[in-house]
């Protein structure tokens, strides 16, 4: 009798990994040390064009004075939380705010607290994975509208739903364009829909005093639930929501990612407070200057750049070509990660460049030289 090849119960894991590799979608971790505009990987100093520390607020020493290990509803609710939540509520012109350990958890906790069975959620097709996962937790009907397409949104809002929600990013994380917030809030007003904005990439970066994308469009007061991250423009750590008192109260009482997890350590809360008080305007101006310089330079080379924000995607299409493009940049001293499915749709792989205020003029000139070579080789 033929002996069956011995199989291990975890062999399916190798099969799955093999399929991921075959499709050029395999991801592996790079270990590096970030220092200002640069990152060192395997002893090689590279220009870092994929940091979310957009404002590059100069680093201050963090005093690690407390490392609690408890939920905020138990004993993890340090006084510093009250201070930061007050400042963030004011920053968003909302009644109150609530801090979560990350932006991802702020989405999971707040969206699943506010929407439920019988409700209708309208979600932009390019919304971030954390929004998609959050919607799935709600038992509400989820209807995806075409990216920034207001006609499609209006049509889909005609569906039945006890409460209706429109959820969008402020600045889209992989495309760098802004949501049509002016029209979205008008449509929401007419249909009595609740507007939720995840502004992880617009917060602290755009609008007056960095108040974010809704403020940029002068509709800050029309947003019912504002969700953001402290780990990007502010360069700190954590996530938060800002809304009316009753919405924040509901989040405290229903958000599983708030109730059943340890609180962010108080020293990180204090770090955010310090960064909020820093000269963010100077950093914001430098970021705007750098963004203009780099995107205009890329356009002059011949790249098709539509984004006006600090997130500049160069769409390559094919996954393998995007990986080759990224490898070429890396070999030439520039670190810009290729982004592939499932982060973006299949065959829309891209280099996602993020500009920071860390970059000096000669950094941008050097980057453009390398991109020029890459254009000749790949485009
Ligand atoms: C749009 C959006 N929302 C939420 C998050 C999650 O934020 P955090 O990194 O604080 O978990 C991200 C992170 O990339 C994001 O791009």
Automatic annotation (TrEMBL):
This is 8-amino-7-oxononanoate synthase. Transmembrane segments: none annotated. It comes from Candidatus Nitrosopumilus koreensis AR1. InterPro entries: Aminotransferase_I/II_large, AON_synthase_class-II, PyrdxlP-dep_Trfase, PyrdxlP-dep_Trfase_major, PyrdxlP-dep_Trfase_small. Belongs to the class-II pyridoxal-phosphate-dependent aminotransferase family. BioF subfamily. Keywords: Pyridoxal phosphate, Transferase. Residues 45-369 form the Aminotransferase class I/classII large domain. One of its GO terms (molecular function) is transferase activity. Its cofactor is pyridoxal 5'-phosphate.
């Amino acid at each position: 009798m033929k002996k069956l090849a011995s199989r291990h119960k975890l062999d399916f894991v190798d099969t799955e990994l093999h399929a991921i590799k075959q499709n050029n979608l395999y991801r592996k971790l790079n270990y590096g040390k970030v220092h200002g505009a640069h990152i060192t990987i395997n002893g090689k100093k590279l220009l870092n064009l994929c940091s979310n520390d957009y404002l590059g607020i100069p680093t201050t020493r963090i005093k690690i004075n407390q490392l609690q290990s408890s939920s905020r509803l138990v004993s993890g609710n340090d006084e510093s939380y009250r201070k930061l939540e007050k400042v963030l509520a004011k920053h968003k012109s909302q009644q109150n705010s609530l801090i979560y350990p990350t932006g991802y958890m702020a989405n999971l906790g707040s969206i699943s607290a506010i929407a439920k069975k019988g409700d209708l959620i309208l979600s932009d097709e390019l919304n971030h994975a954390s929004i998609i996962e959050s919607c799935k937790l709600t038992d509400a009907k989820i209807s995806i509208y075409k990216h920034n397409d207001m006609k499609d949104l209006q049509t889909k809002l005609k569906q039945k739903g006890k409460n209706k929600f429109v959820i969008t990013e402020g600045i889209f994380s992989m495309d760098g364009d802004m949501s049509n917030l002016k029209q979205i809030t008008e449509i929401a007003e007419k249909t009595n829909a609740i507007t939720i904005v995840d502004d992880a990439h617009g917060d602290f970066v755009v609008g007056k005093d960095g108040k974010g994308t809704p403020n940029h469009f002068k509709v800050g007061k029309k947003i019912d639930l504002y969700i953001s991250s402290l780990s990007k423009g502010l360069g700190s750590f954590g996530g938060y929501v800002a809304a009316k008192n009753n919405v924040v109260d509901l989040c405290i009482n229903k958000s599983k990612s708030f109730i059943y997890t340890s609180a962010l350590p108080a020293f990180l809360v204090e770090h955010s407070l310090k960064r909020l008080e820093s000269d963010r305007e100077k950093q914001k101006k430098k970021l705007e200057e750098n963004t203009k310089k780099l995107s205009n330079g890329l356009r002059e080379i011949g790249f098709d750049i539509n984004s006006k924000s600090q997130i500049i995607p160069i769409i390559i299409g094919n996954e393998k070509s995007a990986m080759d493009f990224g490898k070429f940049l890396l070999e030439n001293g520039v670190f810009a990660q290729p982004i592939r499915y499932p982060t973006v749709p299949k065959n829309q792989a891209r280099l996602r460049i993020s500009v920071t205020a860390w970059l000096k003029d000669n950094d941008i000139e050097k980057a453009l030289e390398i991109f020029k070579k890459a254009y000749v080789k790949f485009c």
